[in-house]
Design goal:
Length: 394
């Protein structure tokens, strides 16, 4: 059983144990929500058996997380939300020594009993539907629920940090907050805009991503050591994610073009080392934490990326950053719950990500053009000295 803030998604099966007491699980349905309601008996370790009736063996295999797609591929849902592809030979080895006793008294392997049973867990598709929004019937949803509930409280330290990441620009900080609120209020809508934080060592530009991962739930976030790892052939770890964080930015045009498509495309093709690739709906949000040496050509990509030049004033300021680190490590859930409350209640009813990014860009250019001529000259010299592309003032 997987719980969400909006309801309960149940993957459960009827036990054949004679002493089993039926337990009914109920979920509050939304108009677009699909919820399975099945009866079950739970075991502390469903694979801890040697020989049981065939119906119970099937229920135990289901309860251990195994399921099969209509195309015949077998998967196992891990406790951390990961989905691993199985082969039939491996399945037989997993259940070696575990038997299912049929009604005629004959004992067969538990894996064979499960494969033959009409009660095995079976789906038409695998996908990621946050809050079960738009989830098709008989589908395996990789969504794992939010990381923390919302509760009013003190969260201004996070607001201060976002302003720090925005280089003191309140308009840009508000855009970042709206972007984060959009992720929890309308997670099924892809914004098509990535955030890029450029800062030197010690500015802790990666802390916001850590806070967001704790708020939305670690299973819904992926931190990639390099942006290009998002595009590897065996990229199954990108499936079932709401937030992708790239710790470094691929700076060549080919990688940037692939990143642009990843940020904007509505679907993603994910695959494991064996089995068929799975095409799923993409609702990914992307944050890129870039050091000061990496450049992005904003003239080509400004409609997909909003760049934030992190202030240097707090470089190495552990007194400011440590409370955020503690919250990320699970030592201050009240701060995370207060931030989640702000994101859940923030008014973004009329906020459109790409339109807001364009307005932000226009406002930034107006501010630059309003500068005195000597300051403009300094900016032009700085831009001319930047390698591999012009610095962005969005």
């Amino acid at each position: 059983m997987f719980r969400t803030a909006e309801g309960i998604k149940v993957h459960a099966w009827m036990s054949t144990q004679s002493n089993a007491q039926e337990r009914t699980l109920r979920a509050e349905l939304q108009a677009t929500q699909y919820v399975e309601l099945i009866l079950t008996e739970k075991w502390s370790d469903p694979l801890d058996f040697q020989e049981v009736p065939v119906g119970e063996a099937v229920a135990r295999v289901n309860d251990a997380g195994f399921f099969i797609l209509r195309n015949g591929e077998i998967y196992k849902a891990e406790p951390d939300g990961a989905i691993t592809l199985q082969n039939r030979t491996g399945l037989a080895k997993t259940f070696a020594g575990r038997w299912a006793r049929c009604e005629n008294g004959k004992a067969i392997s538990a894996s064979l009993a499960w494969l033959r049973s009409p009660n095995r867990r079976e789906y038409n598709s695998i996908g990621y539907w946050p809050s079960n929004h738009g989830r098709p019937a008989t589908s395996c949803n990789l969504w794992q629920g939010w990381g923390i509930g919302a509760k009013p409280g003190y969260w201004s330290i996070i607001d201060d940090h976002i302003l720090h990441l925005a280089g003191g620009d309140r308009d840009k900080a508000n855009f970042v907050l709206d972007w984060c609120a959009h992720m929890v209020q309308r997670p099924w809508e892809k914004p098509g805009i990535a955030l890029v934080f450029r800062g030197r060592n010690g500015t802790s530009e990666n802390l916001l991503a850590g806070v967001l991962a704790a708020v939305i739930g670690q299973p819904n976030a992926l931190v990639a050591a390099a942006g290009r790892k998002m595009f590897e052939k065996f990229n199954w770890n990108s499936a079932g994610k709401l937030l992708i964080v790239a710790e470094t930015l691929p700076a060549d045009n080919q990688e940037l073009s692939r990143l642009k498509r990843f940020v904007t495309d509505d679907e993603i093709l994910v695959g494991q080392k064996s089995g068929h690739p799975v095409r799923t709906k993409s609702v990914h949000r992307v944050i890129i934490n870039s050091d000061h040496r990496q450049i992005i050509d904003a003239s080509n990509y400004e409609r997909q990326f909003v760049l934030c030049y992190v202030s240097q004033k707090r470089a190495g300021d552990d007194a400011q950053f440590n409370p955020l680190r503690k919250a990320i490590d699970g030592e201050n859930d009240a701060l995370l719950a207060a931030f989640m409350h702000e994101l859940r209640t923030r008014n973004i009813s009329n906020w459109k990500p790409q339109e807001a990014a364009r307005k932000l860009s226009t406002l930034a250019r107006r501010n630059v053009l309003a500068l005195d001529p000597p300051v403009m000259w300094l900016i032009e010299q700085a831009n001319a000295a930047t390698k591999d592309g012009a610095a962005s003032w969005i």
